[in-house]
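Hi R.,

Here's the input for the uridine-5'-diphosphate complex you asked about:
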Amino acid sequence: MSMYDFLIVGSGLFGAVFAHEMKAAGKKCLVLERRDHTGGNVYCEEKESIRIHRYGAHIFHTSDKTVWDYVNRFVEFNNYINSPVANYKGELYNLPFNMNTFARMWGVVTPAEAAAKIAEQRKEAGITDPKNLEEQAISLIGTDIYTKLIKGYTEKQWGRSCTELPAFIIKRLPVRYTFDNNYFNDRYQGIPVGGYNKLIDALLSGIEVRTGVDYNKERAAYQDMAETIVYTGPIDEYFGYTLGNLEYRGLHFETERLEEQNHQGVAVMNYTDRGTPWTRIIEHKHFEFGTQPVTYITREYPADWKPGDEAYYPVNNDKNQALYAKYAELAKKEKNVIFGGRLAEYKYYDMDDVIGRALEVVKGML
Ligand code: UDP
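And here is the predicted structure with uridine-5'-diphosphate in place:
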């Protein structure tokens, strides 16, 4: 008889939702977390009552009513709507690409004028069947916007040329012929009132959690403790990198306290030129409409990544996808182990999809 029904490795959204649901179903769970705190990358650190998104800004958005109702059982959401501003050498443009952007870029006034401008630039570029991010971007919004707002940002972000990147990355962003600066098309959006830690704490309430335990290093001590293991860490690390390592894009954050009430007037400002070394500056208080007399900003620098560094964005190119497929085959043969979440599925996951997936996996098992 095992001591636990489930040993859950990792306390991010996948692990926390899985643990919560299984506990609710009467199962005994143990959660292991190698960091000294729970929550994975949604974890926030509080300073002078400002919550700092330590592992990068997280804005919750979803169109999945089941997921929205689910998270609202644990926390309330404020009505924050993400409306980042792009800063290209001091010229400011609204994002995502919408009539405000087009008007500022070209002086156009109507949607028809904007569409004509984009069509003209697409035609000039001669792209019919976009094969990479550059071609996809130009065919969606034309050369000017590609050059000023996409090329530099994307090449900094991914450390690769836009011609070597998959088109799907840019399809994340809406293109709109209305004056609407909402970055997301989703039906529901916001930041948890009280912060993401509150959501994680509520999910993990009453569940045994051990932080500072690296499962991959202490497997012998833990793997027989439970009937089933739910592994949410990097899949290649689980298999000891036997087939080689999957690549990630890293990030480096520089946080600064400023003696001013309002530094940039918006939570997210993207620096879209190639010359500025950071991709964006986050002013955390604006996620929660903070009125504190001081502010905290974080400059976000993309960084090369090597195994052992904090893994942020999976680099989902053909080479890595092929390698992932091989690991996924190994994973299938691994008895009584479930692999889930961004790192174990090597997927550029949004938070709502991770939660949705965890709920689905649980449902399939009960
Ligand atoms: N992007 C861009 N310019 C911007 C913002 C985004 O070119 O000002 C592109 C870039 O290629 C980025 C992709 O759009 O990788 C997706 O952006 P998103 O904001 O979804 O990225 P995330 O918030 O996940 O880092």
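One thing worth noting: The longest strand covers residues 248-258.

Cheers,
M.
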